[in-house]
Specification:
It is a single chain. The protein has one domain. Helix content is 67%, strand content 0%. Helix 9 packs antiparallel against helix 12.
Length: 467
């Protein structure tokens, strides 16, 4: 990879600059006014199904990759007047000029197309979202699902002890729960930057490069602390939206009683002769169809909030990762052999591979800086621990207020599967969605293996996947 240390060619920069200059600014803003609501709406609706959540996870991976590339572009001093000009010299980077699409790849030859082969295919982005989605989810669940299983078992054991008064085994539930919580918090020290690195490199094996990822964590303690605090804050809103339907009947009944009191009735009489307007549901005796319709509207609205939270958190993760890579490379902590080809090529193209030499300083200044840096890193590490501990604590409080069997602890939507639909099983059986997702995943894997085998037999080169 020594040839990648040279800056990327800029032969087409003048042509791209001329075409961009001719493009009116109003048309770009008009395009954003259309694409942003469209992509947000599709993402919110896809969070309502398990198979759609796989696509959302893959889209967020591509969004993280774009955020990291933009961060490197800013670190390089914004080469080119616009992002399109800055990424134009490398066709692989030109795909990140615009936010990733949900279904159709951009036409070949336009700014933002990934590569000639993939971008000619209809539903190219759908394929890329699905591929990156299930790969990222498998790694994420492999790291965090054992902690969720322990928290679920600890919750079950604690309540069993409360119901059956098994005082000799009273420590089993709390001990298993604490073990699961500590495992989850420990995994979250590693997961955000590892997931961002998998998104940028496009290779699932890079998720498990422990030494490289931990080096990035050590060079981004402040950013990791910000990710933990932001994750805990966003999870408060997500868990509130998950729990609120359990209190909807009580809230709507109280509102109706207050309306009757304002109309002149006595509070006791209003509570005894409670009636609702014609056409409005009776919140004391909801039918299954009414309850299902109310939950559908609530979780569709919640999907918009959750998808927005994921955009913010994943965007910050991409920026923290990109800044950590630049800092580690320029300080000599990461070398060429520890970076993937895509990372090295991008950094070389932006001229970010220069090593920054430390200036000699007076020894008392060096001692004070060393003490301050050690203290700062320790404070940030404690903040990371407390942030993710609060993240789990909010989930426990939400489950105490309204328990959701299995899915309540095994899946945290802001970290794991972005599937945000908590409809009781007697209103909607989740088994068909689970089996459909499993069948689609198995079918796609089998088709991928067969197509790879046919290409190998016929000697056809494999097209590079869209990022």
């Amino acid at each position: 990879m020594t040839e990648l240390s040279q800056p990327l060619p800029e032969s087409s920069a003048a042509e791209d600059q001329a075409s961009t200059a001719r493009r009116p600014v109003r048309s770009r803003w008009a395009r954003r006014l259309w694409t942003v609501p469209w992509k947000w709406t599709v993402g919110a609706l896809l969070t309502q199904t398990l198979l759609g959540a796989v696509l959302v996870f893959g889209w967020l991976q591509r969004w993280t990759c774009r955020t990291a590339v933009k961060t490197w572009w800013r670190h390089a001093g914004r080469p080119g007047r616009t992002l399109a000009l800055g990424l134009a010299p490398d066709p692989a980077l030109a795909a990140h000029v615009h936010a990733p699409d949900w279904f159709r790849a951009l036409p070949a030859g336009t700014m933002g197309a990934a590569d000639g082969g993939t971008s000619r295919r209809w539903l190219g982005s759908l394929r890329a979202n699905f591929r990156t989605g299930w790969q990222g989810l498998l790694n994420t669940l492999a790291l965090t699902l054992p902690a969720g299983v322990l928290m679920q078992l600890g919750w079950w054991g604690g309540w069993q002890n409360s119901f059956h008064k098994g005082y000799e085994q009273f420590l089993v539930g709390p001990a298993v729960s604490w073990l699961g919580i500590m495992l989850f918090v420990g995994a979250m020290f590693y997961l955000p930057l590892a997931l961002a690195r998998q998104a940028v490199t496009g290779q699932w094996r890079e998720f498990w490069r422990w030494s490289t990822t931990w080096t990035l964590v050590r060079h981004a303690w402040a950013g990791c602390a910000a990710l933990a605090v932001l994750g805990a804050f966003l999870n408060v809103g997500a868990m509130a939206l998950k729990t609120w339907p359990a209190f909807l009947p009580q809230a709507r009944t109280s509102e109706r009683i207050q309306e009757l009191v304002k109309a002149g009735l006595d509070p006791a009489a209003a509570a005894q002769s409670l009636t609702f307007p014609p056409g409005a549901p009776d919140w004391n005796q909801l039918t299954e169809a009414e309850a299902r319709a109310i939950l559908d509207r609530h979780f569709v609205f919640a999907g918009f909030v959750v998808f927005g939270s994921l955009l913010v958190w994943r965007g910050l993760a991409g920026r923290v990762y990109a800044s950590a890579v630049v800092r580690a490379v320029q300080r000599g902590a990461l070398g060429e052999e520890q970076l993937s080809e895509r990372e090295w090529r991008t950094l070389a193209g932006f001229g970010l591979l220069r090593t920054r030499e430390a200036r000699p300083r007076w020894w008392p200044v060096r001692l004070a800086a060393w003490a301050a840096s050690r203290t700062g890193r320790l404070a940030c590490a404690v903040t990371v621990f407390l942030g993710w501990f609060l993240f789990v604590g909010v989930a426990y409080v939400g489950e105490f207020l309204a328990f959701h069997p299995i899915i309540g602890f095994l899946n945290q939507p802001l970290v794991q599967i972005p599937w945000f639909r908590y409809v009781p099983a007697h209103l909607q059986d989740p088994a068909p969605a689970l089996w459909l997702t499993v069948l689609v995943l198995v079918g796609v894997l089998c088709f991928s293996r067969l197509s790879r085998w046919f290409r190998a037999r016929r000697g056809t080169p494999r097209l590079a996947p869209e990022t």
